[in-house]
Amino acid sequence: MIFEGLAEKLQNTLKNLKGKGKLTEKDVEAAMREVKLALLEADVHYKVVKDFVKKVKERSIGAEVLESLTPGQQVIKIVNEELSELMGGVQSKLNLSSKPPTVIMLVGLQGAGKTTTAGKLALNLKKQGKQPMLIACDIYRPAAIKQLEVVSEKAGAVFFSDEGNKDAVDIAKKGLEKAKTLGYDIVIVDTAGRLHIDENLMEELSSIKKNVKPHEILLVVDSMTGQDAVNIAQSFDDTLGIDGVILTKLDGDTRGGAALSIKAVTQKPIKFAAIGEKLEDLEPFYPDRMASRILG
Ligand code: GDP
């Protein structure tokens, strides 16, 4: 489960602090050294760790904390608040257009879980009473189109593809037109991925963006890749401009570095977390609940 190692280490460190009763600045500093190590081991971006520890320390060594009746408890509260803040503080919702259809474009590297996530998102939106249409723009892998068709069916969503058409931009435009004509309120565009970020991919994605004007460009990224996930998010944001992130495979990520770093590094919120292979395995990302998971 996510934050396994981090949770144990932080809870032990903070328990010691609580056990001490009265605290000195030195006690706080020693504890923050441990917190720093635990975060680095969890693969949190080093700059994020540095800023985090600095903030917690500054807040913790204030007189109102150290001279309070329960200083250890206060420090735990501060750590909790700052962890939540690191992940965005409040839940970041999908930006639904007041004028349907809302266009959601999913981007990401191959294998990140894009196609699966498209189905999960469609199901999530269906449960909210929306009628989503999924558009298959991954023209390079025929299997990807079939896979999207299968998940669309399972989710009870409408599926659009244009067999034989080798122009992803054209497919996206045609799909959107159809959704408008038929009155669907959400359009999810599943785009091609590559193993690595390359110029051709970015050009194609930029062109789709220009033509379908998505309300949301969501990057699907594998949380198990840790720091890499952060770098990928940064690159996609620099070249394409993303609105948020869907973090996948949280069920297999024991460290949690990506979850803790992405918002702080890219300033883009994590909107959903995927926690398994089944279509139901998608949850809105709640920073405060995530923080509480770490501190128990
Ligand atoms: P794409 O290339 O980005 O479209 O990736 P796919 O949607 O084909 O997913 C790649 C693999 O990751 C598949 O085997 C999925 O079942 C798996 N996968 C996707 N999301 C999750 C998740 O949240 N948890 C787990 N355990 N597996 C996932």
Tell me the β content.
5-15%
User: What is the percent of helical residues?
Assistant: 40-55%
Shape: elongated
Order of helices and strands: HHHHHEHEHEHEHEHEHEEH
Number of helical segments with 4 or more residues: 12
Given helix and strand content, the structural type is alpha/beta
Alpha carbon gyration radius: 21 Å
User: Numbering strands along the chain, what is their spatial order in the largest sheet?
Assistant: 3-2-4-1-5-6-7-8
Give the tally of β-strands.
Answer: 8
Spans of at least 5 consecutive residues with low confidence: none
Largest sheet: 8 strands, mixed
Distance from N terminus to C terminus (CA atoms, Å) equals: 13 Å
Estimate the mean pLDDT confidence: 96
Distinct small-molecule ligands in the complex: guanosine-5'-diphosphate
Q: What would a concise description of this structure say?
A:
The chain is an alpha/beta fold and 296 residues long. 53% of the residues lie in helices and 13% in strands. The chain contains twelve helices and eight strands.
Descriptive keywords:
single chain; 296 residues; alpha/beta; 8-stranded mixed sheet; 12 helices; 53% helix; 13% strand; elongated; binds guanosine-5'-diphosphate
Write structural notes for this entry.
The protein has 296 residues and is of the alpha/beta class. Helices cover 53% and strands 13% of the residues. The protein has 12 helices and 8 strands. Helix 11 links the parallel strand 6 (244-248) and strand 7. Helix 1 packs antiparallel against helix 2 (25-41), helix 2 runs antiparallel to helix 3 and helix 3 runs antiparallel to helix 5 (71-86). It binds guanosine-5'-diphosphate. The site of guanosine-5'-diphosphate (GDP) has 18 residues, from helix 6. GTP binds at residues 108-115, 190-194, 248-251.
